[in-house]
Design goal:
Elements lengths: L8 E5 L3 H12 L3 E5 L13 E3 L6 H10 L2 E4 L6 H8 L3 E2 L3 H7 L2 H10 L7 E4 L15 E5 L9 E4 L2 H10 L5 E5 L3 E11 L5 E3 L3 E6 L2 E7 L5 H17 L4 E10 L4 E7 L9 H4 L4 H9 L13 E7 L12 H5 L3 E5 L10 E8 L3 H13 L2
Parallel strand pairs: 1-2, 1-4, 2-3, 4-5
Antiparallel strand pairs: 6-9, 7-8, 7-9, 10-11, 10-12, 10-14, 12-13, 13-16, 14-15, 16-18, 17-18
The structure holds adenosine-5'-triphosphate and magnesium ion.
């Protein structure tokens, strides 16, 4: 495939913070960017050359995108895979609609992960109440998750007994779900892989992730796990990308169990919140990788330049009619603030993040927590 070079126009479906950081990377490299997002205040719009303010399934907007963009990618998985297949008839699209469709359904996602030879928590497809009449003991205590449209822990119910599972299934409206065994987690980590259509891949260093109320809170790199375990997580991410013949940037979330074994939780067919540390701490960041792989260029080097802690900034931190107090954070020479340009701060809404680079992950974490407390 011929490489797509600047100043070609690149398109992105979705104008949230991931689209914004994609657009910033692309424009820095000299590309032009078209964003499709129905929100006139979409964070990516400020960084785009063209903002198509239309629904994601708007035929005219999609056709215009397909005709004007040399290549198109997506920043979120809930875009209609059919829209992506439509676009693929007009221009280059990566990742493929098929890969996005797999990742947007926990059932197909888990089947693919297992088919690639990688472990998941024991799981059961629940598409009808009768599926819960079976012996559920391998999956209990467990978590019932809707197959589609879950994020940040939404659409999930923890269940201890078969009765609770049946009640939760009814509560979730009887939509297709996965019942998976609740595992005792030692840690959660993630790997982000960038892969080209020629199967050249680069995997970023493993991030150790902690969550608050089901939302990513802090990522720490290098993860505080044995180097051999980190290597096998990177290897597994790469194998999964190969199995999917994935083109673009993909994130793989893992559970580390008490016995130091790795279990795949889920994949995201896009850059990932846990990869925001790469913006300041790696030779190439995950959005540059997204641009490069989309354009048919080799992935850049993913090497870590410094240990780093990434802290998410949620809307909860914003006072009414004001902003957090940035004074101390902005004065720290090894801290980097990234704000997404969202006007309205709502609880749980991702408003920005900051990266702190220090001599070790532990020191980066301690300083990041101290800085967070000043906000
Ligand atoms: P996100 O969008 O933040 O990735 P999500 O809605 O897709 O979240 P999951 O990643 O499936 O949801 O689960 C959210 C969190 O719940 C996980 O990061 C983990 O902490 C916990 N969790 C999920 N599944 C299990 C499990 N089988 N055993 C133990 N904990 C789990
Ligand atoms: Mg998750």
């Amino acid at each position: 495939m011929k490489a797509i070079l600047p100043p070609s126009m690149l398109g992105i479906l979705g104008g949230g913070q991931l689209g914004r950081m994609f657009a910033a990377a692309a424009r820095t490299m000299g590309y032009r960017v078209t964003v499709l997002d129905p929100d006139p205040l979409a964070p990516a719009a400020a960084f785009a050359d063209v903002h198509l303010c239309a629904p994601f399934d708007d035929a005219d907007a999609l056709t215009r995108m397909g005709q004007t963009c040399a290549a198109i990618t997506t920043e979120f998985e809930n875009v209609d895979a059919e829209s992506m297949r439509h676009l693929a008839r007009l221009t280059r699209v990566a990742p493929s609609g098929d890969c996005v469709a797999i990742a947007q359904d926990r059932l197909t996602e888990k089947r693919w992960i297992n088919q690639a030879g990688l472990p998941t928590a024991a799981w059961l497809a629940v598409t009808a109440a009768s599926d819960l009449a079976a012996d559920l003991s391998p999956y209990l205590p467990g978590i019932l998750k809707t197959a589609r449209l879950g994020y940040d822990g939404k659409g999930q119910a923890r269940v201890r007994t078969a009765e609770e599972a049946r009640a939760a299934f009814a509560d979730l409206g009887g939509q297709a779900c996965v019942l998976e065994k609740m595992l005792a987690l030692k840690l959660e980590v993630s790997a982000i892989v960038a892969r080209t259509s020629q199967a050249q891949a680069a995997v970023f260093p493993i991030a150790e992730n902690s969550h608050k109320d089901g939302i990513l809170d802090i990522s720490l790199v290098p993860a505080r796990i044995a180097p051999t375990l980190a290597d096998s997580a990177r290897d597994m991410a790469r194998r999964l990308a190969d199995a999917l013949d994935y083109v673009g940037v993909m994130a793989v979330e893992f559970f580390v169990l008490e016995d130091d074994s790795l279990v795949v939780n889920e994949i995201a067919p896009r850059p990932h919140n846990s990869g925001h540390y790469t913006l300041d701490a790696c030779v190439t960041d995950q959005f540059q990788q997204q641009v490069r792989t989309l354009c048919g260029l080799l992935p850049g080097k993913p090497d870590l330049l410094s240990p780093v802690a990434m802290v998410n900034l949620l809307g909860d931190l914003w006072p009414q009619d004001g902003t957090p107090n940035w004074d101390v954070l902005m004065e720290a020479p090894n801290a980097h603030l990234h704000l997404y340009g969202k006007a309205e701060a709502r609880p749980g809404r991702k408003m920005g993040h900051f990266n702190v680079l220090n001599v070790s992950a532990d020191e980066a974490l301690a300083q990041a927590q101290a800085l967070y407390d000043t906000l």
